[in-house]
Amino acid sequence: MTDRRHQPAATRRLPAAFATGAAVGTFGGLIGLGGAEFRLPILIGLFRFAALEAVILNKAMSLVVVASALPFRAATVPWAGIADHWDVIANLLAGSLLGAWLGAGWATRLGTQTLYRVIAVLLVAIAAVLVFLHDPAVAGGPPFEGVLQAVVGAGVGFIIGVVAALLGVAGGELLIPTLVLLFAADIKLAGSLSLAVSLPTMIAAFTRYSRDQSFAVLGRNRSFVLVMAVGSIIGTFIGGQLLGIVASQFLLPLLAVILLISAVKIWRHR
Q1: What is the pLDDT of residues 195-234, one digit of tens each?
Q2: Could you tell me where the DSSP H helices lie in the chain?
Q3: Rg (Cα) of the chain, in Å, rounded?
Q4: Within a domain: residue 244?
Q5: Which domain range does residue 255 map to?
Q6: pTM for this predicted structure
Q7: Per residue in 109-163, pLDDT tens?
């Protein structure tokens, strides 16, 4: 008989992994996020993964959430509406793919404690974006047009790609404000466009992470990854169904508070 004391902590917490996946997936499907900002502190604090391992696991779960959220949101935001804005997607991807690749490389070279601190600072910055910029009411027409808009879009995409790779996130919490403010997109459409940009961006970072030995964390925790993935898909389905019911702006203050609490916990983590 296997001694439970010698089993990895994560494999003894499969119900918690399922519940975490479902809860975060619901937020992701509803708002258009990968949900990694909320999953990451749990992977580090509750399941006790090291920083880089948590980022890699986070990236894998974010991929699951983003890939499943797009079709589940299609009843409210049709595929045709996303396809009509292919130029916006391509513009942001032009910068985010490069940023994701470089950011993943930087993350693998950072010390564990340094990475904790970087993650905490980025979470605070994201909370500020959610509170002050993620508001469809402030969006009018696009501030830039033509070539200048394309240049700014690629530059912002690069920054988002770096942040997404460092945190192991989809980047939606930054992409959605960018789409609303820079491209004057409707908030619900922005959520789906964000997912369309996030998916290839995360694949680029994930490919780069696969070169690091910490990538083996996925193989060592197969059951944990599978259970959390199933919970995430169920959550994104629920979130997609709620998309036409719940007003996203009411969730933003709560999400910002959660991010700030998470940032404090990760900053103090040893």
Answers
A1: 888 888 778 777 777 777 767 888 889 899 999 999 999 9
A2: 14-31, 36-45, 51-72, 79-83, 86-109, 112-132, 146-167, 172-183, 187-209, 217-220, 222-242, 248-268
A3: 18
A4: yes
A5: 13-268
A6: 0.71
A7: 666 667 677 777 877 887 787 677 555 444 456 777 788 888 999 998 898 888 7
Listed residue (158, 163, 170) closest to 59, CA to CA? 170
Q: How far apart are CA 21 and CA 203, in angstroms?
A: 20
CA dist., res. 10 & res. 1, Å (int): 19
pLDDT of residue 245: 80
Q: Is residue 5 a part of any domain in this protein?
A: no
CA distance to 28, 181, 189, 245, per residue, from 144 (Å): 29, 10, 19, 32
Q: In whole angstroms, what is the distance from residue 130 CA to residue 187 CA?
A: 13
Contact 123, 37 (CB under 8 A): yes
Q: What are phi and psi of 171, to 5 degrees?
A: 90, 5
Q: How far is CA 163 from the centre of its chain?
A: 10
Evaluate whether residue 158 is within a structural domain. Answer: yes
Answer yes or no: is 175 within a domain. yes
DSSP letter for each residue of 82-144: HHTTHHHHHHHHHHHHHHHHHHHHHHHHS-HHHHHHHHHHHHHHHHHHHHHT--GGG--S-S-
Count of the separate structural domains present in the chain: 1
How far apart CA 259 and CA 199 sit, in angstroms, is 22
